[in-house]
Amino acid sequence: MQKSVLILGLGLIGGSIALSIKQEYPQVSIIGYDRDENTLKAAKKLGVIDDKAESIVAAEEADYIIFSTPVIQTLELMNQISTLSLKRDVIITDVGSTKGSIAAEGERLFTGSNGVFVGGHPMAGSHKSGVTAARARLFENAFYILTPTSKESAEAAEKLKVLLKGTNAHFIDLDPQQHDSLTGVISHFPHVIAAGLVRQAEILQESQPLTSRLAAGGFRDITRIASSNPAMWRDILLQNKEELLKLFQQWQGEMDYVRTMIEEEDAAKIYTYFLEAKQFRDGLPVKTKGAIPAFYDLYVDVPDYPGIISEITGYLAEEEISITNIRIIETREEIYGVLRLSFQSEADRMRAQRCIETKAKYDTFFME
Ligand SMILES: NC(=O)c1ccc[n+]([C@@H]2O[C@H](COP(=O)([O-])OP(=O)(O)OC[C@H]3O[C@@H](n4cnc5c(N)ncnc54)[C@H](O)[C@@H]3O)[C@@H](O)[C@H]2O)c1
Ligand SMILES: O=C(O)C(=O)C[C@]1(C(=O)O)C=C[C@@H](O)C=C1
């Protein structure tokens, strides 16, 4: 493919998109634009882009334009770029976490001789940001939502799927409003709850300094996303206001229900509440990346002594089993170290389990 792609915003998502396109199509020319000069320099140095764009006028040479900026900036940049002399058949997309206003503005601004717009949203990410966190495999097996709103943009969506083949994502077409309603529930609202839980702990910390030291395990799991970029989440909440306001009302009803069960000491209802939540959570697809990323994790109950990690990784290295991640679960750090090892596939995880149980005789278990 001999095309030129302009990516505006070279952070976690823009950088990862750039790397995945380059991996699939080395001949495609990737031009990067970012308002931060250090990001541009780093992107060039890391091989994320082929060339830096001095200004947004570079859009006039592009066959594809991808907005990877925070959602409010995307709206502003879309307006600026729509005034340029773009190629007639340029395909324009974005990666923003909200779609309602971006898709409507895209359809309004890019029509006829001014290219065609199709909204996009790769449903994978991280609480990390910036070009140094970008990875070609970030979107592997994740859902990548496209929101075509016309016959022309549906055709453009098919071409985009070809360009973005290297993401190895699963493409899915949705209506922009449906997108915002779904992501409101499974992404945006959870970020509000995570931040709320952290703030609640922070208030307690003032009178109980032990709070932060005891906040481990479950608290850390449910609040990881509270470490996300605050400016990005401010903009997402403002753009998905209507959906979020509906969700607040639902949530307040839900919490009132839980509070009443506890007030009334209704053990049976409380049990059913947790059981139903567990059943739905356990039924979520964990083997494929989606709203909840999948990992092939193996937990190893190891004694806490120096050198234990190198002992275990040494056994795995002898059998050439690659580990994608390794972590000691903090809650048990001072009693036993529970080591969590992540693998690329179920086959690797099974081999690792056999290897550790045979060579080291430590107990291993899965948590699914
Ligand atoms: N982080 C995630 O988990 C995630 C996942 C999917 C989609 N998204 C969406 O992707 C977009 C980018 O998020 P990110 O996580 O890559 O953020 P990021 O902070 O890592 O990167 C954003 C980049 O945009 C640049 N930028 C900001 N305003 C600009 C402007 N006016 N002109 C040029 N460059 C500008 C910044 O300098 C930065 O390099 C957002 O719209 C977000 O909603 C994020
Ligand atoms: O894994 C995370 O840290 C994320 O929050 C990723 C996440 C999500 O909510 O699932 C965040 C925002 C995006 O628009 C898509 C993905």
Structural class: alpha/beta
In this structure, how is the largest beta sheet organized? 8 strands, mixed
Portion of residues in beta strands equals 15-25%
Name the CATH superfamily classification of the largest domain: NAD(P)-binding Rossmann-like Domain
Q: Please compute the radius of gyration using only Cα atoms.
A: 23 Å
Which regions contain 5 or more consecutive residues with pLDDT less than 50? 331-336
Q: Summarize the helix and strand pattern as letters.
A: EHEHEEHEHEEHEHHHHHHEHEEHE
Which topology of the largest domain does CATH recognise? Answer: Rossmann fold
Distance between the termini: 42 Å
Cofactors, ions, other ligands: nicotinamide-adenine-dinucleotide, prephenic acid
Proportion in helices: 40-55%
Shape by Cα distribution: globular
In round numbers, the mean pLDDT is: 91
Number of helices: 13
The count of DSSP E runs of length 2 or more, i.e. the number of strands, is 12
CATH architecture of the largest domain: 3-Layer(aba) Sandwich
In which order are the strands of the major sheet placed? 3-2-1-4-5-6-7-8
- Count of the separate structural domains: 3
- Determine and state the CATH class of the largest domain: Alpha Beta
